[in-house]
């Protein structure tokens, strides 16, 4: 999996345990604007564009359903705040989703689940 320089820089900050969050304004079904704080999981590069994967958090800073949100990550330079772009094209959204699945496959299994000391086959 290849990453742009912008994605690499952001992901390095995330990997260095910098807890990074972003507030996203969403419109609820009744037309009200709600601000949701999201943890930044990773910035992916798909077809030469950057996309951010966000984990929405509740008021206690937790996520109980495991759902993530994908947005285009638009970077204008160090002096400006990045923008999030809505992904309206189904094929583009699917490509980002598949890239995230590949990323999850690449993450070491023991980082996701603590394995018993003796390993999966019962041997030490």
Protein described:
The protein is an alpha+beta fold. It has one domain. Helices cover 26% and strands 31% of the residues. It contains three helices and five strands; from the N terminus they run H-E-E-E-E-E-H-H. It has helices at residues 5-15, 90-106, 109-112; strands spanning 21-27, 33-46, 49-56, 69-74, 83-85. A five-stranded antiparallel sheet has the order 1-2-3-4-5. Strand 2 and strand 3 form a beta hairpin. The longest helix is centred in the last third of the chain and has 17 residues, at 90-106.
Compact description:
The chain has 124 residues and is an alpha+beta fold. The chain is 26% helix and 31% strand.
Which features would summarize this protein structure in a list?
globular, alpha+beta, 124 residues, 26% helix, disordered C terminus, five-stranded antiparallel β-sheet, single chain
Q: Label the structural class.
A: alpha+beta
Mean pLDDT across the residues is 85
Number of domains: 1
Span between N and C termini?
A: 32 Å
Q: Which segments are poorly predicted (pLDDT under 50) over 5 or more consecutive residues? A: 118-124
Produce the secondary structure layout.
Layout: H1 5-15, E1 21-27, E2 33-46, E3 49-56, E4 69-74, E5 83-85, H2 90-106, H3 109-112
Antiparallel strand pairs: 1-2, 2-3, 3-4, 4-5
